[in-house]
Amino acid sequence: MQTSKGEKISQAVIVFLMLLLCASVIYPFMYMLSISLNVGSDAAKGGVYLWPRQFTWANYEIVLGNVVIRHAYLITVTRTLIGTLAGLLVTLLAAFGLSYERMPLRGVLLTYVLITMLFSGGLIPFYIQLNEMHLLNTFWVYIVPGAFSAWNMFVMLKFIQGIPAALVESAEIDGANPIRVLLSVILPLSKPMLAALALFTAVGHWNDWFAGAFFVTDQNLIPVQTFLQQLLSAQNISTVLGSNNNIESLARGTQLSNVTLMSIKMATVMVSAIPILCVYPFLQKYFVKGVLIGSVKG
């Protein structure tokens, strides 16, 4: 089938616009990468845009060698792993229970969950609630509030309801209890959906700086994104890395004058962004499949 001249022009315009969109997304990333790999004093002169002019690992040596950043990184990784698993487990159990139409007060519970998704009490009541639960300034303030997601619950509920009822009924006839049905029937068929929601949940935990900034005062409990937010308002390197760190030894002989606050910021941004970006290729096939299944099942 031959395409008309107008269709070719429209396709060329679409391709051009998509290339511009890709360039607008990739360029800031490449700029930050080039600054982080360039000598700070040289980058401060300008002219470093897509590749480093004077290559160096000193910025990353300082960032990864700093105990504060390493600990913040550990908090972020631990929070992301535990928070994602807890969020999927709690939300899946709620969705599976509400998928049974004969469940008592099912309509009332669904309405209650829907109200919490549409309306919020605000930051101050939420803060008071966390204080009453003794979660403030603890690691669990990152985990417990996000252990249940109303939006994810409705997505899971819709997906579970799309699974043929005959599969569940046959398992129940064979004597399977609800837990057995969940483990043997629902979970194997829900991998694409769970992978997609796990990706969204993990990215949310990884990128969240708000909880660490407002609900935690102990610097030993802040995640790397909160540290990055604090770094943006810093005035000098000592404020960022701490006055007790031997910066010269961390830089392995590099003169402190060659390292700037901007180069440290860019290195910290890259260190905090690259790991979560590496997760996407491993979940891509499940992610795409899960999104498509959710769009066609009624």
From TrEMBL:
Domain ABC transmembrane type-1: 73-283
Keywords (A to Z) from UniProt: Cell membrane, Membrane, Transmembrane, Transmembrane helix, Transport
Membrane spanning residue stretches: 12-33, 72-96, 108-128, 140-160, 181-203, 262-283
Main localization category: membrane
Compartments in which it is found: Cell membrane
Topology in membrane: Multi-pass membrane protein
PANTHER family hit by this protein: ABC TRANSPORTER PERMEASE PROTEIN MG189-RELATED-RELATED (PTHR43744), POLYGALACTURONAN_RHAMNOGALACTURONAN TRANSPORT SYSTEM PERMEASE PROTEIN YTCP (PTHR43744:SF9)
Family in the record: Belongs to the binding-protein-dependent transport system permease family.
Record's protein name: Carbohydrate ABC transporter permease
Source taxonomy: Bacteria, Bacillati, Bacillota, Bacilli, Bacillales
